[in-house]
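Dear support,

We are seeing what looks like truncated structure output for some complexes. This example has two components. We would appreciate it if you could run it in full and send us the complete token output so we can diff it against ours.
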Amino acid sequence: MLNLFINSALIENMVFAYFFGMCSYIAVSKSVKTALGLGAAVTFVQVMTVPLNYLLNQYVLTPSNINGGVDLSFLSFILFIAVIAAFVQLVEMIVEKFSPSLYNQLGIFLPLIAVNCAIMGGSLFMQQMVGTEINSVGDSIVYGLGSGIGWWLAIVMMAAIREKIEYSHVPAAMKGPGIAFIITGLMGIAFMIFSGIQL
Amino acid sequence: MKLSKNFTNPLAANNPVIVQILGICSALAVTVKLEPAFVMGISVTFVCAFSNLLMSLLRNSVPSRIRIIVQLVVIATLVIVVDQVLRAFMYDVSKQLSVYVGLIITNCIVMGRVEAFALGNKPWASFVDGIANGLGYTIILVMVAFFRELFGSGSLFGQTIIPESWYIANGGFYSNTGLMLFPPMALIIVGCIIWIHRTINKDLQEK
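Here is the complete output from our reference environment:
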């Protein structure tokens, strides 16, 4: 399980290895505070939706006693996205109630967690890993936590770098997204040193 | 006149990927080779065009409170169609694309165009807008894949381009850049494309 966690958080990092959740990653990484908030929300949604989708996958989509032995796996996209959309709605309501300032800062990107590829991608990868790395609900929780924290780590690091780079002389055409892509690429190369770690 | 401007605008000046920074999530991982990049681009164009068309037809009958769910259902249905067609007719490519076909659902371009354009415009204009944005996305994917496949594998569309005799193994001077096949290089290439694009279009530069 520790291996699965390290693997999903560092080696197969959502951002650096699969480019998941790049849209909000580039757009919201301008201040560390906002990045921390969004990262926490994404990790929470990830930890909740991956196990839910795991259960749905095991008992509803693949042939089992509940659905009478019918293979419904072609419906997995639509079912996963429905679970995710419902959950994001819930998180949005919670954040609005308990932290209105964070809610205003995150703005449009809170509902956009629903279309954050990291969440959907986490569920789809989980579906592929069933039978190999993931064999129980516990495994799927660990995977959700690991991949969420990996994304969180990436966006906070990125935000910290971008806060500093404000004071550097970046070529005019590179300001904003251009330099953000290059930095992410270089961070990705740095993260490649984790590959091959076995625990 | 206006329609043709709607069509050409997303291809370069207002490209969804490099100007609006949308849809990068699923874009870059499929760019190791040209063929999957091309297929991915066409799939996104299809989904984007038809989700725009359908949502534009439904725009007056869907209450705005539940529109996100309706959009997701329409988009997910179209993606399931694409996935099944790819599995039936292009099995190898669909294996290479793996989960990224499913991730067209969460591609911000599709959702973004429905929200920003299809909900306020007539069906035909929305359809054209969807095709144009899909093609704008395809262009960037193909550009990135071109460089990665040429320098990473020495081939294009699976056809060897670099002559065999150039390689060091055969007594030549050349070897493929393995780093090109790793994910970070896709990001750096997109960064360079943005750099060139904004050097030409100065009005896009920040501050």
